[in-house]
Design brief:
mainly alpha, 3-stranded mixed sheet
Length: 191
């Protein structure tokens, strides 16, 4: 997916896309490669790449605040049920119905407060952002961050390692604030 995206962007930002291409381990030049087939570049990919750029910007801000010479960065990806909350908010479902569905569908009994937190965030979120969220999948978002770890690290001087985790995995490792992860807005923890 990423190779198609950088191929399309190559005429606009050739140096960056050729660099990303080399990080992906591809030896041929993008400027001489074939264009992807129509339909191969999907809106989801563009949304996810925008999320990567936003993540890099957020990490830069955090690094400036904490002023650490070297940091290990944990990127914590939200589970699919948080996207489901966004979809239901977009559809106009009431909070009680959302809680009932998520308790059953995702086994979230006892985690109602988290559902309410996500609901409250999404009630204040612009409709266009909610639409972007529901056009993506958690697995795709996770995969995008994993595939772009080297790119993320290269854009962030002072970062020695980038680790991508699911929210539940981060919670089992007792990583603080893992529950704050949202679709397209992962939680970030610096170590």
């Amino acid at each position: 997916v990423l190779p198609d995206w950088i191929t399309v962007l190559n005429p606009v930002i050739p140096h960056i896309t050729e660099e990303i291409n080399s990080w992906l381990g591809r030896e041929h030049l993008l400027s001489t490669s074939k264009w992807p087939e129509i339909g191969a570049v999907k809106e989801e990919i563009i949304t996810l790449m925008d999320s990567v750029e936003s993540l890099i910007s957020d990490i830069k801000e955090l690094l400036e605040l904490v002023k650490r010479p070297e940091a290990k960065v944990y990127v914590i990806v939200a589970p699919e049920w948080k996207r489901e909350v966004a979809r239901m908010v977009l559809e106009g479902l009431p909070l009680k119905a959302i809680i009932d569905v998520l308790r059953t569908k995702f086994g979230l009994k006892g985690r109602e407060a988290e559902i309410v937190d996500a609901y409250n965030v999404y009630k204040k979120t612009e409709r266009s952002m909610l639409e972007s969220i529901i056009k993506t999948k958690s697995k795709s978002e996770y995969t995008m961050y994993v595939e772009t770890m080297n790119y993320i690290k290269a854009r962030l001087p002072g970062v020695r390692e980038v680790v991508v985790l699911w929210e539940d995995e981060a919670r089992t490792r007792n990583i603080p604030k893992a529950e704050r992860a949202l679709p397209l807005k992962p939680a970030i923890y610096l170590e």
